[in-house]
Amino acid sequence: MSTVVGEMDQHDDHHHHAPSGITRWLFTTNHKDIGSMYLWFSFIMFLVGGSMAMVIRAELFQPGLQLVDPHFFNQMTTVHGLIMVFGAVMPAFTGLANWMIPMMIGAPDMALPRMNNWSFWILPFAFAILLASLFMEGGGPAFGWTFYAPLSTTYSSDSTALFVFSVHIMGISSIMGAINVIVTIMNMRAPGMSYMKMPLFVWTWFITAFLLIAVMPVLAGAVTMVLTDKYFGTSFFDAAGGGDPVMFQHIFWFFGHPEVYIMILPSFGIVSAIIPAFSRKRLFGYSSMVYATAAIAGLSFLVWAHHMFTTGMPVFAELFFMYCTMLISVPTGVKVFNWVATMWRGSISFETPMLFALAFVILFTIGGFSGLMLAITPVDFQYHDTYFVVAHFHYVLVSGAIFSIMAAAYYWLPKWTGHMYDEGLAKLHFWASLISVNVLFFPMHFAGLAGMPRRIPDYSVQFADINQIVSIGGFAFGLSQLIFLWLVIKCVKGGKKAPAKPWEGAEGLEWTVPSPAPYHTFDTPPEVK
Amino acid sequence: MAEQPTKPDNTRIIRRLLLTVVGMFAFGFALVPLYNVFCDITGFNGRFTDGQAAANTRSVDTNRTVNVQFITRVNKGMPWGFEPEVSSVRIHPGETKVVNFLANNPTGQNMIAQAIPSVAPGEASLYLNKVECFCFNQQPLAAESKTAMPMQFYLDPDIPEHIHTVTLSYTMYDMTENATPDALAAIAQPVN
Ligand code: HEM
Ligand SMILES: [Cu+2]
């Protein structure tokens, strides 16, 4: 990152000089600085959440209880989930948005740079609070990332107030980030950059930001109700006082399902940038991509109860939610079709960003298919709360969202650092991740179909072999990510000088500025034809 | 819009987005009454319209018999014993029946409790009508005493053909801390 500072001094004498040292990062309002901080933060959280996954997999290596006690195990699954969702995936996307959206639409910065600084800097506090709660007497949150009442109300530990507080902060951060993205996209596009000329990454983030604005407040409401039920004697979810615990699930999943799309729509945008670049062809069906994204976002509000098929809903409601859920796979299918059609007869080369993007398309589709299986109400009675669900959402989130973030990092690292990353190391990282991620998550399907429940520290012996394989895959996947850490540090420090446009087939305004991107770009808006 | 040479108006968009945020936060809370209204109207989730049904004036459909099962439990930490006198009855739709539920308070304190009903399948809750039920009110019970609490009900003859079994379950909650004035008055006098 030192290179960025150097560039700034050379190029922008007419701008105020950023302070150096820690204050530069504390007070910065520059979208590139903030983007970098988001990305580093998300990577640190990825490693922290990943270590918790290692604890989980170590305990599950063998049947029986050997390493940690069940209560701590539950805290690990809970905090792992919370950190990965709110600390790793979402901030990574916000970091990418900060870095890339202004450069992609030809804007000098985000529209609300001061708010941008705030929305980043409150995040470390949120996660410090969450992590600190693990050390409280009675332990941290142990009720699952979905914090179902009454687990999170009647049966939770005293640290629940900290959990609620930290989720509030995360929510405020996301909402501020989303407002910034929307205002930037609506008001800061360069002349000629009409909506239907925007790169798909910008489009998918635009739609994601609206989803965030719509559902993060509902999450805030849900945690607030948990707080008042637990500490202030209300009975939103307590049947004794006229409330209803099933209602918690409705409110949570009204947030929760759109949330899973918040974690995947920006991925669609990333992949839609990378696949054309390395196929040396234009994206097939640009406008259908935009409409499909909007359709997915709209439908995502009508499917929440597919997480609740076993709560005893009436048949009519089960069928309604089943069909709506299946309907989502239509626009999703349009997207997969378009990516494949883009590659069709393209002149494809397989640099690391493309490898991750290809793996994304295939593995995300597997996750989509297991989602379709789960959407079939009668069979979900068997699959629900088993490892099959765990396999499903890790295919869409790890080999989906995370792989797309890796692809994005490789694709834009030369632009960020001014250096080419080490392609050999990158290939190693890719193949190690690809193999281990499948060893890790594919057998979980079988464990789930055979009836192994999720969120459990011990299991009956017939699942021993499968779990051993899964754990080995898990350790391998965890270690593989250290290659990436090493690679990024190496690339920041030095490497082959990157040209302005390191990828032959890449398109977009970000490739018209030098690498590394100067501290200030597009002070005078570019002309978009 | 993008072509505007002047500084575009951010505050209007921000104001609208913030309003949406506030609106959605309120919507989260509005889901609570909406949910209750929805469940009461449709009977989803095995909810009752807690009100008392009119005495049965309908004809009895002797061609069908429905098995009505009773399940009882007490909330965690609630010391009472609580169980139905019979575990199930077979009745014709339209036929009125009384079932007693037995409660005993083994503690040394006078207590007040309330039973919360739920019906499975949820669809059936619209057709299960209670003429009289101990669950309508809080139930006081003096220290170390027992009582039999009646529940009188009938099934609406319109109950769909495919429902052969209805399960009525009650969970008993300790309400001593949140007692209504009526219940407090009842416990203040020596019971029987
Ligand atoms: C074709 C698309 C999809 C379908 C049909 C689908 C369907 C489902 C269903 C029915 C469940 C509930 C299973 C159960 O609990 O019994 C589920 C769970 C889940 N899905 Fe998906 N899904 C799809 C895509 C996605 C995507 C794109 C993501 C995120 C990127 C995602 C993340 C999750 C998560 C996190 C859970 C588990 C939540 C929990 O219980 O903790 N899904 N999915
Ligand atoms: Cu869902």
Write the layout of secondary structure elements.
The complex is a heterodimer of chains A (529) and B (192).
Chain A: H1 2-11, H2 22-27, H3 31-59, H4 70-105, H5 113-133, H6 160-187, H7 200-231, H8 245-262, H9 265-279, H10 286-299, H11 315-343, H12 352-375, H13 377-383, H14 387-417, H15 423-449, H16 464-493
Helix pairs in contact in A: 3-4, 3-5, 3-16, 4-6, 4-14, 5-6, 6-7, 7-8, 7-9, 7-10, 9-11, 9-12, 9-14, 10-11, 11-12, 12-14, 12-15, 14-15, 15-16
Chain B: H1 10-42, E1 66-74, E2 81-84, E3 88-91, E4 96-105, E5 111-120, E6 128-133, E7 139-141, E8 145-155, E9 165-174, H2 181-188
Concise structural overview:
With 529 residues, chain A is mostly helical.
Task: Describe the protein's architecture and organization.
The complex is a heterodimer of chains A (529) and B (192). Chain A is mostly helical and 529 residues long. Helices cover 67% and strands 0% of the residues of chain A. Chain A has helices at 2-11, 22-27, 31-59, 70-105, 113-133, 160-187, 200-231, 245-262, 265-279, 286-299, 315-343, 352-375, 377-383, 387-417, 423-449, 464-493. Chain A is globular. Chain B has 192 residues and is of the alpha+beta class. Chain B has a 5-stranded mixed β-sheet. In chain B, strands 2-4-8-6 form a 4-stranded antiparallel β-sheet, with no helix packed on it. Residues 1-5 of chain B have low confidence and may be disordered. Chains A and B meet through helix 6, helix 7 and helix 8 of A and helix 1, strand 5 and strand 9 of B. The structure holds protoporphyrin IX containing FE and copper (II) ion. Residues 257, 260, 303, 306-307 of chain A line the site of copper (II) ion. Copper (II) ion is lined by residues 257, 260, 303, 306-307 of chain A.
Helix run count of chain A: 16
Q: Within the CATH hierarchy, at the fold level, what is the topology of chain B?
A: Ctag/Cox11 (Pfam 04442)
Helix coverage percent of chain A:
55-70%
Query: How would you sum up the major sheet of chain B?
Result: 5 strands, mixed
Can you tell me the CATH architecture of chain A?
Up-down Bundle
Spell out the helices and strands of chain B N to C: HEEEEEEEEEH
Determine the CATH superfamily of chain A.
Answer: Cytochrome c oxidase-like, subunit I domain
Summarize the largest interface: chains and residue counts.
A-B, 44 and 41 residues
- The mean pLDDT of chain A is 93
Beta-strand residue percentage of chain A: under 5%
CATH homologous superfamily of chain B? Ctag/Cox11
Oligomer: heterodimer
Task: Give the overall silhouette of chain A.
Answer: globular
**Distance between the first and last residues' Cα of chain A:** 33 Å
Radius of gyration of chain B: 24 Å
> What spatial form of chain B do the alpha-carbon principal axes imply?
flat
Strand order of the largest sheet of chain B: 3-1-9-5-7
